[in-house]
Amino acid sequence: MTETDDVLAGVLDLVGKEQYHEVGEFPVERGYIWTSCSSVENGNPLYWDDEVAEALTGGPIAPPSMVSVWFRPHHWAPGRTQEALPLQVHFDLKERFGLPEAVMTDNTIEFHTPVRAGDVLRTHQVLRSVSEEKTTKLGAGRFWVIDVVYSNQDGELVAVESYTGFGYRRAEAT
Amino acid sequence: MVGVPQRLFGDVVVNEELPDLNYEVTATTVVLGALATRDWRPMHHDKDFAVHRNGTRDIFLNTPNQAAWFERYLTDWTGPHGRLARVTFRMKGSVFPGDTMILRGVVESTEVDEVGCGFASVAVTLSVDGDTKTTCAARIALPMSPDDNPWARRGDQWRPSPTQP
After folding, report:
1. How much is the pLDDT for A80?
2. CA distances from residue A102 to A165, B22, B84, B144, B161 in whole angstroms, order as listed
3. Could you say which of A18, A26, B33, B54 is the most buried, measured as most Cβ atoms within 10 Å of its Cβ?
4. Phi and psi at residue B152, in whole multiples of 5°?
């Protein structure tokens, strides 16, 4: 078995396993919901009119597309010594395979139970697949698919975000 | 809820074009969008960093804020009963202050799933001066009748991704 085979075997062993369980740093709050709606001039009454929210969703919810907002770390927090990186599995794969560059080629989000003010969300990451070595116009490397699974404090599934990444070495590298 | 607009599944026609959304992007649009999504990375608020470190001509819209633009575009069309089920983004280029972005959408297909929920699949593009910057394939649920409410679906009654053939 070569060193590359060893690395690959180690990575394939992680496929399907839950990694990096985290809890959101703050409860979902309406101020952020309004700031987000305001930033894109979203006048959907579901987010601005409590009667509409009560009738349609049994009370206020957050726009589904905000799901990742609740997990971006504070810019600073007491006691933090290093920058928190979202999507750690992606950075782990770059390092394990020794691939200095990476791009995200696409991003899919599937929305389940709505997010409500006061929710404290949880997340974990799951590596879904890793490709054979492939060469594209960017360079040689591997594609991988990582899921970020979001759930609420009651264990209900909130969303699954799927990223396809391509880690590579530049084609023109010497 | 008098006066709340409601597009029903039966109102949707395949190949129907959604109304365009035109928006003049300013530095405020970009910075407000970045902070609203808790994205503190400097290329979304610091022009010097964007130009000298990222090699772009200015600060640019971040992806999560574009997701919010797409969601707003889709629910402007459906009304508040529209429930977003699934989106897939592909980023092809950046959107800068001074750009007029245009969001355009077309209904590619409609479907009633096994549990009776009606969905429209909409292809949305965000373009500037005719160049596509981002594409978004969206699946959104609409009510089957004036009394139906896709938001009321829970558990197995809500299936955001189409069943694999």
Report:
1. 84
2. 7, 32, 29, 43, 27
3. B33
4. -75, -10
Mean pLDDT in each 10-residue stretch from start to end of chain B (165 residues)?
Answer: 81 98 98 96 94 91 95 98 97 95 98 97 98 97 97 96 77
A45 to chain B: nearest residue by CA? B80
Report the residue of chain B nearest A50, measured CA to CA: B1
Domains of chain A: 3-170 (3.10.129.10)
Domain layout of chain B by residue ranges: 9-157
* Topology (CATH) of B9-157: Thiol Ester Dehydrase; Chain A (3.10.129)
Under an 8 A CB cutoff, do B72 and A52 touch?
Answer: no
Confidence at residue A174, expressed as pLDDT on a 0 to 100 scale: 45
Cβ pair A69:B64 closer than 8 A? yes
User: What pLDDT shows up at residue B145?
Assistant: 96
Look at residue B136 in the predicted model and tell me its pLDDT. 97
ipTM comes to: 0.95
> What pLDDT score does B164 carry?
65
**B84/A107 touch (CB, cutoff 8 Å), yes or no:** no
Q: Around Cβ A112, how many Cβ atoms within 10 Å?
A: 22
pLDDT digits over A10-68, tens only? 999 999 999 999 999 999 999 999 999 999 999 999 999 999 999 999 999 999 999 99
Report the candidate in B163, B121, B161, B160 with the shortest Cα–Cα distance to residue B9.
Answer: B121
Quick one: tokens of A166? 């391509």
Q: What does the block give as tokens for A10? A: 């180690």
- Helix (H), strand (E) at residue A170: strand A157-170
Taking CA–CA distances from B159, the nearest residue in chain A reads: A112
* Chain B: closest CA distance from residue A12 (Å): 25
Cβ pair B33:A55 closer than 8 A: no
Cross-chain Cβ contact B33/A38 below 8 Å: no
Say if the Cβ atoms of A63 and B71 lie within 8 Å: yes
- Nearest CA distance, A32 vs chain B (angstrom): 7
Partners of B17 in the β-ladder: B106
Distance in Å, alpha carbon of B36 to nearest chain A alpha carbon:
5
